[in-house]
Input
Amino acid sequence: MELKSEISQIATRTGRARLLTMALVLALSAIAACSTPRTAPSPSSSAPVSDSSRASLEEIRQTIEALRPVGVALAAPQPGDWRERFTEPPQTFDEYLASEPSVARNDRRKLYVQPLGEFSPARRKIVDLTAEFLGDYFGLEVVTLQPRSLDTVPFDSQREGVTGRQILAGYIVDRMLAPEVPADGAVLVGLTDVDLYPEPSWNFVFGVANLKARAGVWSMARLGFPDDGPGSFRQSLLRTLKIATHETGHAFSLPHCVLYRCSMNGSNSLDETDKCPLDLCPECTGKLAWATGVNARARLERIEAFCKRNGLRSEAALASTSLAEMAKPAMTRTAPG
Ligand SMILES: [Zn+2]
Ligand SMILES: [Zn+2]
Output
């Protein structure tokens, strides 16, 4: 079976204006996951939020139908949008089940977050909030590991870019993270303030994930300036949440969504990412409920509460709308348009 890594990025190729793209590429090598974490969980590890009662297939199908009225069909792509450049097939919930997706096994129900390198105070706060939100979103226990230095990255895996130090993303994923994925980890997500690049011909990359190895790294270097004030902080936080949840969704075999406006929509630019919703569409909510066992209603309540706490009003309102729709008796729901 081919190994898939996803490179998600706003990237520029050397000598060209900003080329905004996100692509699936084939990984050339696999690195076996290590059964023992070398990095101990920090004292600030978040409390478990795992949803103990996994819904049945029938219950998940009911949830999808309950949420379908709030699903918004995608409009025709604009020039330069992801869907204008790449044609991907739609996938329903039943097609997802048939795809033998990667799910959170009973012995792999922790989502590990690895801070890498130094962070400004605001960016460190975004790391902590992202870790918290990943737990809310996926219904898995999140463990934030102690920060790990990037000083050991060899010279041939880094360079000086126009914005400062850049590190070869594949080195972090395949050499630093993949061998360290704990045995009980569904995924190990690295977050860094340092700019990344996927290969010498690229100017930079947002992040890279090796789905087979259950490891990925994402940079916050180009997601805004959270130290500049509350508005800038919220913008950087929201972008980081979108990228972290989108990429972690891929780790559970959710492909790009072309049915609805959805967190799993492919994005070809930071502008397109800004237009993507934070949450999943009805079909992808069902897929996630199957993959992690998350209770859809409890998940929405957590997302609503998180977004309210952190000033993400539009996102909180969307979660409230979904919850209201789920609360309606089936006979009174709006017919899907
Ligand atoms: Zn993607
Ligand atoms: Zn979707």
User: Anything to note?
Assistant: Residues 4-25+44-328 form a domain with the Collagenase (Catalytic Domain) fold (CATH 3.40.390.10). The chain has ten helices and ten strands. Residues 1-50 have pLDDT under 50 and may be disordered. The two ends are 39 Å apart (CA to CA).
